[in-house]
């Protein structure tokens, strides 16, 4: 924009300057014409004045010739008279023509012509009389002198009028010349000014152009240098680094790649890398990479295997890639990716996952397979009791049988609990419904009614801030049941147990996650890290004065963590305990997709 | 009273207890025992064939067994022609909800599911539900 206006402005300047020069020419030619016309008028007037002078001198010649002849009677004196007679009409005719545009002068000239004619007639009369009488008619001479005086006066008037005209013409001509001078001067000045401006503008434009060019040059060289530094940096990274164009084609690998794969740039460039990745990882990698390129979202968790040239072994790598974005548009300009060898960790993790799965299966199978023998023992115990009832049995048989039944019951309980744990591991279905907490807590409270009645415990419910939770109902009930029953079971001996159950949205982290909090005024614990671990451990118990399986808090923790949340505990010995469950936000969109 | 009940379970103790229970409740004249699905099918073939002497009216079937499991037993049984002639009630005995779900996900000729262990109440309920205290054909 700025550049364009700079180009346009000199052009406008040029046009204006040319117009001004044209106008100067026009003004000059107009004024010159006027000057020439004025000069012609002045010449004309001058000519008239000359002619008038001549007219007077002709009349005087005629007068002088007459006087000489009359005094000397020598006819030689008549020559000037004859010359004057001949010249006067032509001179008069010229005067008439010269003042053709002036009516007043024409009138005066006519008067002059009559006076001149009369004067010449009188001279002719005088001469004729002298020829006849050799005397002079004095009366005639007086008449001649009067005519001569009149002609002289007319001539003076004519000359005065012409001189007046001349002065007018001179003044007009002077004014014209002055005006032309001023106009031409002003316009020339303006043209000079414009030319200066245009030159200045041109200079300025050239400067701006040069600056822009210099800037571009500097930037290009800076970019080149920055690119070189960037590449140098990428080369110095111990990881395998690559870069790709925004369209997803790979255009650079650092030396570590070539060292590891033993391949060349041509082998890996563009989409050629697809031939060298582990075939089993091909599909997942392509999918993840295409998604990243399409959305501009970084790659963070992609894992795939690459063959190491040194021993032909495929090793696991973690692939991370981020788009470098254009500062102005935000569009991806270049992808930079790293492949980090995580082979050892990956194998370890796979082993761990396998062991975990085995353990889950073991717990499940054990709880299942132990059921049959314990049920059988129980049934056999019943059969034995029936058989023994037929005879009068020794006194301690009943006690023995009762103890055996007790042991069987505990065995069965443990198996039931194990089964519950195993079930927990197998459940993976995401919850769909929002649970009404008040109703659920009321349900649990009724289940725990005997415990509430026996302890006089009070439950304070505050779920107004978050009355509904999206969670698997069975699990949520199990969580609430365990926390409430613990709060009552581990009550302080000196006070009536009070339990507070609260829910509220997670503090301003933008997500829709929620916190479920259960606080009691019970025994409380001095919790070090080891006790914390034990508190939530499977079959771990921190108290032995009341019945407990060591399963409740393990289940609570497991349920919360399986759902993607976490649990924290605050406890003060002799004061009470607060369990805070951070429950993750539901993800309805993902579920709809699945 | 039914004529014959077939117990299919690999655990001899369970079989002993269940057989004793059935006899004490006078459920049937005869209680047959097979220790896996294969042997159970053999017995059915023998008893419910041409002569049809003592074909079981009720089969109590365990899920987990060596050689042939309860589910495999049912898959083969579904294809047998003798099924058309003899209305055999098959009750699957399960240890867990999961096992029951496993059975119900397939279209198997199972009349009902019972959670172990077998008790007098469960047997009484079975009889009233499916046999209406009537004597079966055989």
TrEMBL record, chain B:
Q: Give coiled-coil spans as residue ranges.
A: none
Q: Does the keyword Coiled coil apply?
A: no
Where, per the database record, does this protein carry 4-aspartylphosphate? 62
**Domain Response regulatory positions:** 4-131
Please give the Pfam families that the UniProt record associates with this protein: Response_reg (PF00072)
PANTHER family, from UniProt?
RESPONSE REGULATOR RCP1, RESPONSE REGULATOR RCP1-RELATED
Know the name of this protein?
Response regulatory domain-containing protein
């Amino acid at each position: 924009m700025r550049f364009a206006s700079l180009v346009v402005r000199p052009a406008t300047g040029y046009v204006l300057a040319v117009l001004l020069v044209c106008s100067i020419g026009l003004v000059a030619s107009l004024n010159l014409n006027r000057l020439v016309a004025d000069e012609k008028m002045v010449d004309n007037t001058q000519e008239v004045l000359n002619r008038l002078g001549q007219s007077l001198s002709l009349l005087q010649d005629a007068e002088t010739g007459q006087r000489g002849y009359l005094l000397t009677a020598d006819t030689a004196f008549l020559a000037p008279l004859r010359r004057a007679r001949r010249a006067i009409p032509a001179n008069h005719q010229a005067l008439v023509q010269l003042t053709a545009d002036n009516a007043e002068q024409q009138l005066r000239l006519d008067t002059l012509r009559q006076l001149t004619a009369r004067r010449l007639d009188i001279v002719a009369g005088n001469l004729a009389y002298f020829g006849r009488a050799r005397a002079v008619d004095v009366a005639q001479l007086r008449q001649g002198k009067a005519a001569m005086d009149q002609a002289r006066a007319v001539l003076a008037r004519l000359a005065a009028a012409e001189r007046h005209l001349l002065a007018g013409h001179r003044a007009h001509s002077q004014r014209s010349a002055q005006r032309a001078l001023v106009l031409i001067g002003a316009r020339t000045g303006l043209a000079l000014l414009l030319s200066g401006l245009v030159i200045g503008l041109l200079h300025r434009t050239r400067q701006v152009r040069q600056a822009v060019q210099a800037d571009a040059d500097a930037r290009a060289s800076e970019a080149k240098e920055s690119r070189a530094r960037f590449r140098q940096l990428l080369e110095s990274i111990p990881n395998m680094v690559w870069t790709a164009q925004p369209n997803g084609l790979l255009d650079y690998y650092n030396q570590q790649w070539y060292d590891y794969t033993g391949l060349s740039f041509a082998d890996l460039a563009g989409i050629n890398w697809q031939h060298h990745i582990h075939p089993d990882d091909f599909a997942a990698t392509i999918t993840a990479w295409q998604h990243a390129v399409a959305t501009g979202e970084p790659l963070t968790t992609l894992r795939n295997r690459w063959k190491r040239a040194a021993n032909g072994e495929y090793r696991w790598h973690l692939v991370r890639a981020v788009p470098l974005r254009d500062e102005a548009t935000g569009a991806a300009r270049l992808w930079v990716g790293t492949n980090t060898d995580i082979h050892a960790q990956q194998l370890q993790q796979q082993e761990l996952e396998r062991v975990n799965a085995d353990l889950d299966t073991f717990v499940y199978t054990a709880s299942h397979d132990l059921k049959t023998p314990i049920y059988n023992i129980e049934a056999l115990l019943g059969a034995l009791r029936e058989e023994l009832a037929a005879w009068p049995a020794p006194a301690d048989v009943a006690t023995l049988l009762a103890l055996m039944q007790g042991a069987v019951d505990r065995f069965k309980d443990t198996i039931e609990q194990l089964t519950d744990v195993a079930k927990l591991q197998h459940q993976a279905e995401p919850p769909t419904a929002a649970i009404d907490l008040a109703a659920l807590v009321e349900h649990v409270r009724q289940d725990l009614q005997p415990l509430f009645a026996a302890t006089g415990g009070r439950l304070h419910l505050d779920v107004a801030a978050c009355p509904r939770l999206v969670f698997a109902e069975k699990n949520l009930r199990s969580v609430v049941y365990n926390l409430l029953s613990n709060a009552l079971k581990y009550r302080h001996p000196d006070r009536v147990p009070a339990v507070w159950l609260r829910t509220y949205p997670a503090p301003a982290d933008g997500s829709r996650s929620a916190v479920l909090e259960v606080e009691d005024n019970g025994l409380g614990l001095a919790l070090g890290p080891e006790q914390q671990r034990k508190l939530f451990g499977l079959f771990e118990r921190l108290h032995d004065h009341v019945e407990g399986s060591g399963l409740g808090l393990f289940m609570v923790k497991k349920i919360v963590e399986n759902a993607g949340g976490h649990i924290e505990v605050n406890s003060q010995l002799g004061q009470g305990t607060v369990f805070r469950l951070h429950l993750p936000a539901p993800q309805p969109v993902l579920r709809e997709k699945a | 009273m039914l004529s014959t009940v077939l117990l299919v379970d690999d655990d001899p103790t369970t079989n002993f207890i269940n057989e004793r229970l059935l006899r004490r409740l006078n459920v049937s004249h005869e209680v047959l025992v097979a220790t896996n699905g294969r042997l159970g099918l053999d017995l059915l073939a023998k008893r419910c064939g041409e002569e049809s002497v003592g074909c079981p009216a009720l089969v109590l079937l365990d899920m987990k067994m060596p050689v042939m499991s309860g589910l495999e037993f049912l898959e083969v049984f579904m294809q047998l022609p003798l099924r058309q002639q003899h209305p055999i009630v098959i009750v699957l005995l399960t240890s867990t909800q999961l096992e029951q779900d496993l059975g119900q996900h397939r279209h198997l000729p199972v009349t009902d599911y019972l959670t172990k262990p077998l008790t007098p109440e469960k047997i009484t309920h079975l009889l009233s539900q499916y046999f209406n205290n009537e004597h079966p054909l055989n």
